[in-house]
Amino acid sequence: MFICVYSWLVVHVAGTQFTPSSLKAFVNSLFGIETEYGIAVEDADATHLVAESREVVKSYAGRYASPWNYRAEDPRNDVRGFHVEKLSQDPTDAQFDKPADRAQTPSEDRCDRVLPNGARLYNDHGHPEYSTPECTDLRSLVAHDKAGERIVLECAKRRAEVLGKSIEIFKNNTDFHGASYGTHESYLLRRGVAWDDVVHNLAPFLATRIIYAGAGKVGTEDKGAPPCPYQLSQRADFFSVLQSVDTLHNRPLVNTRDETHGDARRFRRLHVIAGDANMSEYATALRVGATNLVAALIESGWQTPVALRDPVRAIKHVSRDQTYKWMIETTDNDSISAVDVQRAYLRACRELELPGSEWVLNEWEETLDALADDPMNLHDRLDWVAKKSLLDDFAASEELDWTRDAATLQSLDLAYHNVDPEAGLYYGLVEAGAMTTLVDETEIEAALCDPPAQTRAALRGLLVRRYADKIKSVSWGGLAVEEHGERIVLPLPEAAADYPALCAQIEATESLRDVAAVLRKA
Amino acid sequence: MNTFHADETMRRPLPADPIQKPGGDDSGPSEPKVKRPDTRQLLDRMKRVDPEQAKRYRQRSGQ
């Protein structure tokens, strides 16, 4: 799983006098995305996916470090102050477990690869998963998210060649039969913020951000729910409680996993599991950019004026509402539209006056205005609108009916998320010039190899590039290496003011003992 | 306590591509200024999609 780290940075805000009083210790925004990819192997059913996912990951042909240090992780630790014995399992999914496919150790099961770009590639319960490195800016994040698609696709192609069968990779969150897999986000949050405040202030935002961040889905997988030809979110069907540490079953809107991967005394990782995998670069940037600002808002002590009667029910209603009015109940027996909930958060984020937040604030506002006016005008930037528009046109030209031909439309829905540029419908739209993109080819190619320069990922990537064969274990926070029979632990500094300078010093070293000395001084 | 700042988020601003504001005058709503995608170019690709692929598509439950 991905994590955030922090670094203290003295920043000179452009246009202000550079005096001691104007010096502030800012903490960098840090965020990342981890995506579990769907995988379809020709003539293979779900029984074989865990083994095949491992083989796809092992087909990665570049330089990498492993194994992952699982002792540094504990997904059963609940932020509310307790530790659960066991995470809930999906009983339907358990039928696919075959003892013969079971690995002996977590390392054998996960097949972790830490890449020179600072990312982590591994098998997560039958899904090739790609965690971007820690990013401080949205542009890098979008580029690394796209780089992840290409890396997983390349692995699948290599495996397909060996197997002699086709393998398709999908960046989505559902199999239309009731199995969901996640696209999680991580944001840095101060430890001192009361958890109850996090939940109270985050839930209305998460329940409604799907109006611009949803990836769109044909049909519903919520047993007992009325039929729904098309809904905004892939994941909304799968949430059943407000908060919980679980992620595999009985999923919560707000995840309480307490796994900081950084200085847990000062920070926590806000682990957001209530999100869809976006193909659209714009939707990715707006989703993460807005949520990052809301994290800052919650840290500031702001209290939301919007209290929803039932946030879990609200996200399902917003997702399925065919009128696009998105009216949801508040605790005072009133109702409010999802657009107005988002506007309340937007207004408060504007009042924070955070330098450099203009792009997110302006795009957020214009998107909400457009959603209130006619959502379909956003077909060039929001996934759920682009997909709906595409399917509407196809249904009209082929005389398909949304109910009668739901299976065909679900197949097209799935094809939208195929990450192969030659086959995927999203990439067909990009090729036609019908989607707004934010990063160029050069940036994505750079992200395939290079980590973000301003986070500890820069150090991780550099050490993988230089010392992959000497690395004995690796985690988000550091590495253990061995040289001349000596085991050396290399914790990655979270407080480095200048990561590029630190990398330059490491480049100039001649031994791992020298590297350790540089890192100790950082 | 220092305030959490998100300035690093947009240190390298993303290119703005402003959405057209809802237009119109007294004569009624104006035509949307956003060009719709030419889905004819995609039609062949869509027709090549196996209409049964979603029925076969089964995944392990993930996180």
Give an overview of the whole structure.
The complex is a heterodimer of chains A (522) and B (63). Chain A is an alpha+beta fold. Chain A has helices at 49-58, 91-94, 106-110, 138-163, 195-208, 210-213, 281-299, 311-320, 338-352, 358-373, 383-398, 406-416, 425-431, 441-449, 457-467, 499-507, 512-521, and strands at 8-11, 24-27, 31-36, 38-41, 77-78, 82-83, 113-114, 120-123, 128-131, 167-170, 183-190, 217-218, 230-231, 239-244, 251-255, 267-272, 327-329, 335-337, 471-475, 478-483, 486-491. In chain A, the strands form eight sheets. In chain A, strands 7-8-9-3-11-16 form a six-stranded antiparallel β-sheet. In chain A, strands 19-20-21 form a three-stranded antiparallel β-sheet, covered by helices on one side. Chain A has a two-stranded antiparallel sheet with strand order 1-2. The longest helix of chain A is centred in the N-terminal third of the chain and has 26 residues, at 138-163. The radius of gyration of chain A is 23 Å and the shape is globular. Chain A starts with 7 loop residues before the first strand and ends with a helix. By secondary structure, chain B is mainly alpha-helical. Chain B is elongated and about 35 Å long.
Give the largest interface.
A-B, 99 and 50 residues
Structural class of chain A: alpha+beta
Number of strands of chain A: 21
Seen as an oligomer or otherwise, the chain set is heterodimer
Order of the strands making up the biggest sheet of chain A: 7-8-9-3-11-16
- Spatial separation of the terminal alpha carbons of chain B: 35 Å
Poorly predicted tracts of residues of chain A:
1-26
How many distinct helices of chain B? Answer: 2
Strand content of chain B: under 5%
Largest sheet of chain B: none
Helical fraction of chain A equals 25-40%
- Count of alpha and pi helical runs of chain A: 17
Strand content of chain A: 15-25%
User: What fraction, in percent, of the residue positions of chain B are helical?
Assistant: 10-25%
**What is the rounded distance between the termini of chain A?**
26 Å
Order of helices and strands of chain B: HH
